[in-house]
Specification:
single chain, 309 residues, alpha+beta, 2 domains, five-stranded antiparallel sheet, three-stranded antiparallel sheet, 8 helices, rod-shaped
Amino acid sequence: MTKKKAMTKNRKPLKDKYIGLETFIYSLPPAVPTDAIGSGKDCLLKEANNKHLVANASTYSPLEIVCALIGVVVLVYMFYYKPISFYNRMVEVIPARVDNHDYSFQLTDYEESYIYCYKKEGLSELKRKIKSRESFSMAFLGGFIGCSIFLYWGYVAAKRCRDCVIFDRTTSMVTYHHTFGLFTTVAPFNEVLFQPRPISLYDPIQILGFRLPGTISWAVLSLGHVYEITSLYVWFMDKNRPLPPGSVFDPYREADYLRRKEMGFPMPLYHSAIETPEWSGAEEKYGDKNGRRRGKLLFHPEHSTDTLK
């Protein structure tokens, strides 16, 4: 992964009004299968190994961008192209009808009224009358407001399409790529905020909001299952525990076990309400008979240098 400039110099702690979930393993997280990794918007993760977990924070639908662009095109036609075309047509047709007696152009009764203005007051007054009577200024203002709304909709949709959150297990840091993926914010995992957020006042389903210090926008990590998904990320970021369940982590379990064994199996970093079982091959391959005991005893760890060998 290419390393981008991170906006961490002016990072401020999150305000107290943002109350989120404790950094805690609440329940058994979903087992992540290998085929759950992908780049589509419906994929929970973009990448998963024993070092990084890249969460897909994209919540957009391609149809949003298409609808926004169609809206802009329709408004431009209605509020800009059509009035300007009418103005140019009248400025060309009326003098041709009066000066050259050219009756090949068909005019409505409404448009015939401009002939009298041209005969009496001239071309400049005709232009002024068309502009004022057709309310060009209001039309242009309405078009500008409408296009701005659709462009902002497209901007927000496109902004989310490249958002992702990188959980680094080795350094306990979190990197948030946001705003079209052009900006990066980095913060320690213990400073981030998980928060269940309702979709609306009338919808019981909650989304898992995620925020880092230094950012004003929320990333959306899941639709529903907020405690299970939070447990997945907390479990993964606790580098003193075995890797979370799921076939996607199976190729890395032995290497992760040896790393923790070399460190003397230090106490976990975050509390858990469930067992976090040791790699199944620890006892078979390395004769580790304490693996099951460690998984059962790590409910309420103490932040110390103690180890469970």
